[in-house]
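Tokens as discussed.
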């Protein structure tokens, strides 16, 4: 770049804008590359050390004519700082890539994939869908991926579960929208006499939950079924019902009916635990609010006060609300089916 060009950019006030765009685009491209490297298996393939291009090609290209495309993709990873190239081949360089191939960080890895796929689709397609009155559907998301990524808030939800699951004595748990069944597993670990039914709307997520239950040797205590809670005949046989991060799968105007229906599955004195992102502080709920508002048969996020009011209207008593994450509007709500206590909000 010549001095004259630099001066021109400064005078036209374009340079700061171009620099900001360049930084933002690089971050975006880097996240997208990591996501594609995770979903394709590339990052795990390179974890053990340098792998030459000719050894990668059979696993990543269907035709020899696509080999240049594979090399270009790998070179992009190098340019972004996530890969490095040597005479021996390609290997991992970026700290983020190295972290996310560790199974310990599976939820974070899934969240990165979700951001690069579902979040990108939501943000970029929303204006056109608004003009065409065309909503998203549950089929537009990967149920297994969402089940995995939703576990990023697992430590906070575990804290909420601690408050409602007794450490001993027979307990029957109904989990509506069980995802990967991770929270059922945690509850079962708190109480060795607990049994549970996990109900999941999306078959792919239910399949993942069933696989996990089998792997965790919980098959005698936990059953997983595919189904809609609203199409299930209620019997008051459960001590605890849970709705984790899924109240927005129901339209706002139907939520009281849903909660009232769920209450009919609880024995007198049984409790409902509901966890959800709400509208309010923090930026984490924005994309979820957009997804709920524009997805067929779903709805926007509630406010904390609205959620308390809807639980009360549905017949739950002694309703409490508790913020789980400082600086974010992520809440747990607990209501009783049968207690005469006066509701309150913390």
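Sequence:
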């Amino acid at each position: 770049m010549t001095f004259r060009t630099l001066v021109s950019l400064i005078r036209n006030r374009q340079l700061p804008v171009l620099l900001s765009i360049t930084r933002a685009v690089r971050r975006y491209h880097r996240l997208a590359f990591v996501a594609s490297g995770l979903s394709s298996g590339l990052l795990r393939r390179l974890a053990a050390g340098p792998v030459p291009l000719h050894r990668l090609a059979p696993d990543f290209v269907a035709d020899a004519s696509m080999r240049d495309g594979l090399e270009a993709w790998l070179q992009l990873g190098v340019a972004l700082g996530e890969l490095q190239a040597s005479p021996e081949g390609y290997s991992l360089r970026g700290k983020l890539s190295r972290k996310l191939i560790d199974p310990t960080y599976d939820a974070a890895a899934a969240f990165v994939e979700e951001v690069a796929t579902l979040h990108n689709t939501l943000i970029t397609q929303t204006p056109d869908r608004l003009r065409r009155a065309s909503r998203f559907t549950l089929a537009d998301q990967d149920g297994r991926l969402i089940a995995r990524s939703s576990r990023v808030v697992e430590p906070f939800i575990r804290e909420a579960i601690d408050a409602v699951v007794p450490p001993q004595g027979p307990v029957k748990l109904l989990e509506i929208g069980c995802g990967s069944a991770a929270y059922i597993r945690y509850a079962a670990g708190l109480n060795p006499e607990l049994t549970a039914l996990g109900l999941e709307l999306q078959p792919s997520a239910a399949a993942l939950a069933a696989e996990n239950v089998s792997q965790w040797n919980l098959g005698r205590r936990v059953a997983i079924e595919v189904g809609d809670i609203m199409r299930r005949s209620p019997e008051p046989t459960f001590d605890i019902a849970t709705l984790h991060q899924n109240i927005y799968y129901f339209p706002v105007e139907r939520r009281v009916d849903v909660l009232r229906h769920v209450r009919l599955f609880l024995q007198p004195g049984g409790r409902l635990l509901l966890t959800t992102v709400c509208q309010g502080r923090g930026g984490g709920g924005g994309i979820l609010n957009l997804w709920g508002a524009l997805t067929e048969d779903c709805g926007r996020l509630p406010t904390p006060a609205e959620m308390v009011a809807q639980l009360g209207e549905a017949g739950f008593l002694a309703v409490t609300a508790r913020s789980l994450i400082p600086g974010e509007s992520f809440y747990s709500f607990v209501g009783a089916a049968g207690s005469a206590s006066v509701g309150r909000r913390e």
